[in-house]
Design goal:
With 149 residues, the protein is mainly alpha-helical. It is 63% helix and 4% strand. The protein is built from 6 helices and 2 strands; from the N terminus they run H-H-E-E-H-H-H-H. The protein is globular.
Length: 149
């Protein structure tokens, strides 16, 4: 089976982020958060302009919420990997405690093996990201406990 194109992986990741996030908060907040995040990251990763978020979430009959133009396929795997890492990490931070402790693990569990393989080739390891997230959370808890003592 051929590996998915980079544009397909980007779309899968964003759809998965929306799917998981909307279970933890409401859809309008999720869409607005991703939209703002993408606009902010577009300054660093200009190619994100090729990703569009349809924020017309009240129109049930509308097509996909995410549109990724094929121009993304010309971006170097390393740069796209950095962007995906930033998107996932930023979304996890933006949702805060609403994301849950295993937000990144949920993303990994909801993506196809092919998507995960392409992401690993881009330098994005969701298992490592989850571990980093847990360490940061534990450091915060320890710091808070020390402040309370």
């Amino acid at each position: 089976m051929p590996l998915p194109e980079k544009s397909d992986v980007m779309k899968s990741v964003l759809k998965t982020l929306i799917s998981i996030s909307r279970r933890k908060t409401d859809l309008p907040y999720t869409i607005i958060t991703i939209e703002c995040l993408m606009k902010r990251l577009e300054n660093q990763y200009g190619f994100l302009k090729h990703v569009q978020i349809n924020d017309d979430f009240y129109n049930e009959g509308s097509g996909d919420v995410i549109s990724v133009m094929s121009d993304i396929n010309t971006v170097s795997p390393t740069e796209l990997g950095k962007a995906l890492h930033s998107i996932i990490d930023s979304m996890n931070c933006s949702l805060g405690v609403n994301a849950g402790h295993f937000f990144i693990k949920e993303i990994r569990n909801n993506l196809s093996d092919e998507d995960l393989s392409v992401m690993r080739d881009m330098g994005v390891d969701l298992g490592l990201m989850q571990l980093e997230s847990e360490i940061i959370r534990l450091e915060r808890e320890i710091t808070e406990r020390k402040k309370q003592s």
